[in-house]
């Protein structure tokens, strides 16, 4: 049986695609992270990552093990819960960005409820910037949100995954018309701000073809062919296509998915939730439309 500690470290690297970021998220040094991965690679007898001076990517065997590791850790947590039972009690106010709420996160939260049945979870779905304001005001205990890499608030909380903004449309196209037709969400929405600012910085004319509230509205407009939009790469639905650089669209920055905990949050419930999300991995894709 593979050591759960090694599997957790492996998943942290697989999600962040960075040994350094994985170490920070787990409170481990980079050499310790490397040692854990090396020991796991020795156990499985396969290389799990391809590493060079700048990039870390999963091998085919690494991708396979990531799925097995999540199942193993989930089974391990259920076994511990069955024989010891969680003694954690309390109420936790948890906020999550809408596009993250549309992923596999609900399945992770169901597992949390199974492991910690005595913790009541109040779920709120809001925009990223509102979530952080609610954390600061004490109205939320834990928030799962997206933050830009250049944003100083990115340093708050635990890094769950480093991601990349991408341009996407209903179908692949060789070129994009100018002015670029853009589907936008709320004026304060992070992805909409990224799309407008990137076009303006690159001097590429754009026009807002549709303004809608929330991720579902943006998805509906893009699927209808009303324009293109910016999404986090890991959260792209299977029916929305990432547009290549050859279309002439400006390059986009990266982003972080982070868990931010209020200093006033109840310690044990907050730790239990963040541990469950981190061990369960980051939801990789929006749920497909029904």
What's the count of strands?
A: 11
Mean pLDDT, nearest integer? 86
**Low-confidence runs (pLDDT<50, min 5 residues)?**
none
Query: What portion of residues belong to β-strands?
Result: 15-25%
- Structural class category: alpha/beta
Structural shape: globular
Helix content estimate: 40-55%
Order of helices and strands: HHHEEHEHHEHEEEHEHEEEH
Helix-strand blueprint:
Elements: H1 4-16, H2 19-26, H3 30-44, E1 49-51, E2 56-58, H4 60-84, E3 90-97, H5 98-101, H6 105-115, E4 119-126, H7 128-137, E5 142-148, E6 158-169, E7 180-184, H8 190-202, E8 206-211, H9 214-223, E9 229-232, E10 241-242, E11 254-261, H10 267-280
Parallel strand pairs: 3-4, 3-5, 7-8
Antiparallel strand pairs: 1-2, 5-11, 6-9, 6-10, 6-11
Helix pairs in contact: 1-2, 1-3, 1-4, 2-3, 6-10
Question: How would you explain this protein's 3D organization?
Answer:
There is one protein chain. The chain has 290 residues and is of the alpha/beta class. Helices cover 42% and strands 23% of the residues. The chain has helices at 4-16, 19-26, 30-44, 60-84, 98-101, 105-115, 128-137, 190-202, 214-223, 267-280; strands at 49-51, 56-58, 90-97, 119-126, 142-148, 158-169, 180-184, 206-211, 229-232, 241-242, 254-261. Strands 3, 4, 5, 6, 9, 10 and 11 form a 7-stranded mixed β-sheet that branches. Strands 1-2 form a two-stranded antiparallel sheet. Strands 7-8 form a two-stranded parallel ribbon. The chain is globular.
């Amino acid at each position: 049986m593979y050591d759960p500690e090694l599997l957790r470290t492996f998943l942290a690297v697989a999600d962040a695609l960075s040994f350094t970021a994985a170490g920070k998220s787990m409170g481990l040094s980079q050499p310790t992270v490397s040692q854990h991965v090396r020991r796991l690679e020795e156990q499985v007898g396969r290389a799990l990552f391809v590493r060079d001076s700048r990039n870390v990517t999963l091998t085919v065997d690494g991708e396979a093990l990531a799925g097995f590791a999540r199942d193993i850790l989930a089974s391990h947590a259920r076994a511990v819960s069955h024989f010891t039972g969680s003694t954690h009690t309390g109420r936790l106010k948890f906020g999550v960005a809408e596009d993250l709420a549309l992923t596999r996160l609900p399945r992770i939260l169901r597992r949390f409820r199974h492991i910690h049945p005595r913790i009541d979870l109040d779920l709120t779905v809001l925009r990223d910037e509102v979530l952080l304001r609610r954390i600061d005001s004490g109205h939320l205990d834990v928030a799962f949100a997206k933050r830009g890499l250049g944003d100083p608030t990115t340093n708050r909380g635990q890094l769950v995954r480093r991601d990349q903004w991408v341009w996407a449309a209903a179908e692949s196209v060789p070129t994009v018309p100018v002015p670029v037709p853009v589907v936008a969400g709320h004026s304060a929405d992070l992805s909409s701000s990224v799309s407008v600012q990137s076009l303006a910085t690159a001097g590429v004319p754009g026009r807002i073809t549709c303004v809608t509230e929330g991720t579902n509205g943006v998805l509906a407009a893009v699927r209808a062919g009303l324009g293109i939009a910016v999404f986090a790469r890991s959260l792209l639905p299977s029916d929305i296509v990432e547009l290549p650089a050859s279309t002439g669209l400006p390059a986009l920055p990266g982003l972080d998915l982070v868990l931010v905990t209020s200093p006033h949050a109840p310690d044990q419930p907050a730790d239990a939730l963040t541990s469950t999300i981190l061990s369960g991995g980051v939801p990789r894709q929006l749920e497909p439309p029904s």
